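Q: Given only this backbone (229 positions), what sequence would you predict?
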């Protein structure tokens, strides 16, 4: 598994009353196959998740992913760490499903014909081949999230960060996406309000008020959160 390290990381932002600390000084190392980030809205968990591929830059401290300093080599870090957003519409930018997956392969498959064939093979492997020529705008919420995740995985990242990937989905599609994430061979960082899904991870961080207040086995962290919320 990969090693994700936060070394005395602080994230601050300008607010109406001056500088506001979004994430207080945090040091930790993540080596488990899957880790959940849980906590109330505005707690800082999404901020922490976005540090790993440079979507958020620390105000101080270092973020290191498998020896890659994210601030110094953001491009390499983003190739190493795939990121799935809550709303898949933020990632589906091409007209059709096939074209969107092809876009993810532009770096590894320079030839358009080879890129198309590879994209079709990936969709077939994910059970999404029948959607290849569909407009991304006609997909259901669950289909959009699955296609967005397929695009992320097509880049063959070593780490997948998923920021509340089931929040906009119904129960059945939430389970489908959750099962896909939990079955990935890549290391998974899961930011979620779905506590049943979080409890399936190896480890969980409970974040409140910009601080990690509990760090341990995921079922224990979920029980602690439920008992104190």
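A: Predicted residues:
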């Amino acid at each position: 598994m990969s090693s994700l390290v936060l070394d005395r990381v602080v994230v601050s932002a300008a607010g109406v009353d001056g500088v506001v600390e979004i994430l207080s000084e945090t040091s930790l190392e993540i080596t488990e196959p899957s880790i959940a980030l849980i906590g109330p809205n505005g707690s800082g968990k999404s901020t922490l998740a976005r540090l790993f591929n440079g979507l958020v830059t620390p105000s101080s401290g270092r973020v290191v992913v498998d020896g890659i300093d994210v601030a110094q080599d953001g491009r390499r870090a983003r190739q190493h760490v795939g990121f799935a957003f809550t709303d898949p519409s933020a990632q589906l930018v091409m007209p059709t499903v096939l074209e969107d997956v092809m876009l993810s392969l532009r770096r590894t498959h320079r030839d358009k014909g080879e890129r198309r064939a590879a994209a079709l093979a990936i969709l077939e492997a994910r059970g999404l081949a029948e959607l290849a020529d569909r407009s991304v705008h006609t997909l259901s919420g669950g289909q959009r999230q699955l296609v967005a995740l397929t695009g992320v995985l097509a880049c063959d990242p070593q780490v997948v960060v998923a920021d509340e990937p089931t929040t906009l989905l119904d129960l059945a599609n939430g389970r489908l996406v959750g099962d896909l994430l939990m079955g990935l061979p890549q290391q998974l960082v899961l930011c979620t309000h779905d506590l049943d899904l979080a409890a399936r991870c190896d480890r969980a961080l409970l974040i409140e008020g910009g601080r990690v207040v509990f760090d341990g086995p995921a079922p224990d962290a979920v029980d602690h959160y439920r008992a104190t919320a």
